[in-house]
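SAMPLE LOG
Freezer: B-3
Tube label: C17
Construct: single chain, 371 aa
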Amino acid sequence: MKPTLSTNPSPFTILLVDDRDENLLVLEELLENGNRQFIKATSGNEALKYALKNDQIGLIMLDVQMPEMDGFEVAQFLKANPKTRDIAIIFVTAINKEEQYVLKGFEEGAVDYLSKPLDSNVTRAKVNVFEQLWRSQQALKKSATDLATINKQLEKFVYMVAHDLKSPLTGLITLLHLVENMNESRPIEQAELANYLSYLKEAGYHQSTMISNILEYSRQSIDQQASEWVDVAQLLSQTTKLLFPPKHIQVNVAEPMPVIYTKKIKLQQVFQNLLSNAIKYNNKALGAIEIGYTDQENFFEFYVRDNGPGMTIDQQAKLFTLFRPVGHSQHESSTGVGLNTLKMLVEEQGGALRVNTSPGEGCTVFFSWRK
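STRUCTURE (predicted):
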């Protein structure tokens, strides 16, 4: 889909400065084009006040000959202040055109010069050029802001990918150590070894698929990222296997789970991180994790509930701080992504994420996902 161009660009604001009201009215009438906004000042002090208060001013038409504070002094103050030094200034003057006056104007920060009586065509043409320059500058600023936003999103993406890949790798390595230790303590039967190898092979394939999906996702823009039919029960089964939950923790998925047309990798990221946290922080001899959902009008609201330690009010306050671990003990070290990034993923779907928890009572995370 092609982007639609705005037919109503933001108004171009011009500050007109002259000690004579009739001159201000003539300038405004000369420059009015239906998409310009004018601020009028009759003294240097008034001009400085307007310039400092309004950060949308794109051009100042500044009369040189004014009582108390002339145009050169006004320009000096404007250029000395970081808030106003980048505003373009055109000096308007009836002073003779001797070179010394022109040079003084440029030294004080003028970018152009107009002599009275004004030539209407020349004045309009010059102001049109400065308006185009101002709009180009605004577009560049927006591009810089958008680029900074994209860079932050990329940073978050990298952290999240690292976290998503680390969890199943840790489980896989743990299982390998378990097989190694078992072999040292007693001979492993062929059937038992085959079972473990099959489990490891399946986990490896899932990991490889996950990496491929992430690489494909990273190459595509949001508009290009394809949606597909996702069997949530199957997705949860695969995700749980990748996390290698210890035997004392049971993961129960309510049946039946829905099938959704969505971006699979995003839904997988949300479930994997919620499950990973629920497994990692569970401190019960028999851990229980329950996954279910409720069918709402335009959304499915999923929940991941555990019987773990729950969280204090202070810990809950850190939940949505990016890359800051919540921590369930003073000595715990973590590089978790927190719920902030998950919240962003959910909100991309138009949904919301909320948490219900208290110390010793476990934790339930709810998130809604568009159908």
